[in-house]
Amino acid sequence: MPSPAPTPVLTRPVVLVLCACVLVAQSMVAAVNLLIPQLAASSPHPSHTQLLWTVDAYVIVFAGLLVPAGALGDRYGRKGALLAGLAVFAAGAATSALAPQPALLIAGRGVSGAGAALIMPATMSVMVQLAGPERRARAMASWTLAIGLGGLAGNLGGGLAGQFLGWRALFAFLLPLSALLALAVAVTVPRTARSPRSNLDPLGTLLLTAGLVAVLFGIIEGPEHGWASPDILAAFAAGALLVAAFTGHALRSRTALFDPRVFAAPRLRAVTLGMATGFFGLFALFYVNSQYLQGVKGYGAALTGVAITPLVAGMTLVPRLAARWAPYPRPVIGSGLALIGVGLLGVSMADAGTPYPLYAGWLLVISAGMGLSMPALTLGVVTSLPPHQAGLGSGLGTSARELGAALGVAVTGTVLSAHPDLAHGMGPALRTVAVVVLVATVVVVTGHGGDGKGTARGAGRAAVATAPGTNDAATTPGAAGGPGPTAGKAGRRRTPTA
């Protein structure tokens, strides 16, 4: 009898390749924001609205397709979804690099966002499938690190391209980089078991995707058009109706994209709110960071990209420590989110005379909070859905991050618009965000419900029945989830995001 094939494991080369894919997809959320001045003066001559859509197209398409893209990878193969995502991402970059007019530039950004929607859930679910329960905490730490490094790479790349190269060079560089990553994925990343029980649910996918896009459009465009404007109210109303229609459809269908009743689990609600809260605070900071460093401190674009480096330091060093405390998620999550709130309060006191080392110190506090809380929050989503829906879980977790990030930018922009300039509005805006983060931290810690290794043991309870008609969800522990690129109306005030 031939011996069975060995079960694939998560090796260091696989981790490096998957994290590199995450880094590249994440970096393009940030990089374009630093190119806004050059784009405005370039040959396509985009209007103000077209510039905003150049920034937003990537984020809106990406966020809207995350959940169905994750389910697609679960059903037809996560490695195939990752390779397809890299190809689509490169095609979008090529379209943007060669775009003779703004419409094609925006379309290219949207296509790249669709590729990123395939990349992010696939990387997370492959990593979790290969890691096994005992190594999942370290896998989450590595994935979180890739997110932070992607933000740094995007700021550095966008700043350098904006100051020394043409904006087309940034998009052109993504073509050979995507090809190299695809080759590395093909060679190093093993295939994981497909899940024929995962449902694509075309009607449910359409309803949920359209609902998320409508809500994100309302959040992102709210500060520009006014929260009471007919367009924004219509967007929110349409989003609410579409999400409600999806919920009704999913509760009746035996082949739903996912069962909304998974959110009946208090711990899943808590970790989802925690992920949204962390990125609510982080992207509020990103929204004002570039304006403060360039407009108030007088830094150039490239130096501004370098000056954000302290935000990556905590995300680089702390997740490895946080992985050691994985059995005690409640205090880890609470401490991390609290550090983000305290750090925002510190940054809110910065003005033109604030020494950069002091400002950088508060950035370190915020980054330490992100590095401490995000792996534990991601692991909370991981253990709340069954293994055959790993990609779907990743999409749900990333969608929470997207909504949180978009809200952070929207709230900050709204408070800033009530003041004459950034110097007067930055403090009140960040203090408002900090208070929201600290209040939400209490809610998250209370809802998480306890410490200990019950996170992993509670997987089945959180997943009650992942789709009507399936019976194994309540007894099968483990799954995947995790953060991805983020949303922001940063281009509105030439603000880099990461």
Q: Low-confidence runs (pLDDT<50, min 5 residues)? A: 451-498
Count of distinct strands? 0
Q: Give the ordered list of helices and strands.
A: HHHHHHHHHHHHHHHHHH
What's the total helix number?
Answer: 18
Mean pLDDT: 78
Biggest sheet: strands, sense, closure? none
Cα radius of gyration in angstroms? 21 Å
Report the portion of residues in β strands. Answer: under 5%
Structural class determined from secondary elements: mainly alpha
Question: What is the 3D shape?
Answer: globular
The portion of residues assigned to helices is: over 70%
N-end to C-end Cα span: 53 Å
Please, could you describe this protein's structure?
This protein has 498 residues and is mainly alpha-helical. Helix content is 73%, strand content 0%. The longest helix has 31 residues.
Structure described in brief:
This protein is an all-alpha fold and 498 residues long. The protein is built from 18 helices and no strands. 73% of the residues lie in helices and 0% in strands.
Blueprint (SSEs and pairs):
Elements: H1 12-30, H2 36-40, H3 48-76, H4 78-98, H5 102-131, H6 136-164, H7 167-188, H8 202-225, H9 230-252, H10 266-296, H11 301-307, H12 309-324, H13 329-347, H14 356-382, H15 390-417, H16 422-448, H17 454-457, H18 459-462
Helix pairs in contact: 1-5, 1-6, 1-7, 3-4, 3-5, 3-8, 3-15, 4-5, 4-7, 5-6, 5-15, 6-11, 6-12, 6-14, 8-9, 8-15, 10-13, 10-14, 10-15, 10-16, 12-14, 13-14, 13-16, 15-16
